[in-house]
């Protein structure tokens, strides 16, 4: 009987302790305020359209001074952004592949910094394309990597001293294709996997300075942005040399193109999930290291995928009917 009484007391004390710890955690979290936009600046690359354009509008509404990097500041996207935003938003000409433009953007930012400095850099500028590796030239890989990877490194290297001074945020736009290797996305996957390696290393280095680094991993948001590059099977096939035309016939090219377009059409039509994640990474007192942005149905699969044996992940792709059609069409005239 005494034993039961003692066990009951232990359970009771443990329950009270857990409740107190939970209450204390809630109290601490309430004292950890999210970042107030007023007096702080954020630099965003790739604001001509898509995620960057929408995030710039949201951060402007929240009182941040927004430096919106645009490839074409005189273009319709940048002009629309300037017209619909407050005077706190400044459109910058910023080609992330140009050292000169990055340095000029830094000078402009330094000349217009608010009192609290540069709180965050959001490396959002990027391109996508689809093609099998044998359809891609070295120039195709170089362009993809120069924008998606070296562009982010170039911008980060230039602006890190300012973000470090503010103990702020570095946010990188990646993709599920950083870890989800599949047909037709070779060059894009290379660029995004490299970007995540850079961001992971930067996160470890910046922790000592109080700077937090986050990676955004969107799934299929092709319809919510204009990042998808439109081309036909004939466009690809005409670039191939004679030997490859014997292997990859035009019929397969057209089938692959139709498959890619239909896949993109099945994705999210609204970018709110991505914008909310980017906003959280910039303003939250406790931003996540990674934001995996896929449907609820797909979430478990993509969470487990990086940890599965290679033989199993490769087998997943063999289940697609596209692979059977591809195998049947190879070498046919």
List keywords for this structure.
seven-stranded parallel β-sheet, Rossmann fold, transmembrane helix, disordered N terminus, alpha/beta, transmembrane, 7 strands, membrane, 333 residues, D-beta-hydroxybutyrate dehydrogenase, mitochondrial-like
Describe this entry's structure for a reader.
- The structure is a single chain.
- The protein has about 325 residues and is α/β, with parallel strands linked by helices.
- Helix content is about 55%, strand content about 10%.
- It has a single domain (about 35-230, about 270-330), classed as Rossmann fold, CATH 3.40.50.
- It has a 7-stranded parallel sheet, with helices on both faces.
- Strand 4 (about 120-125), helix 5 (about 140-165) and strand 5 form a beta-alpha-beta unit.
- The chain starts with a helix and ends with a helix.
- The model is unreliable at about 1-10 and about 25-30 (pLDDT under 50).
What's a quick, concise take on this entry?
This protein is an alpha/beta fold and 333 residues long. The protein has helices at 2-31, 50-61, 76-84, 99-111, 138-166, 186-206, 233-237, 242-247, 250-265, 272-283, 296-304, 310-318, 321-329, and strands spanning 41-44, 65-70, 89-93, 118-123, 169-173, 212-218, 290-293.
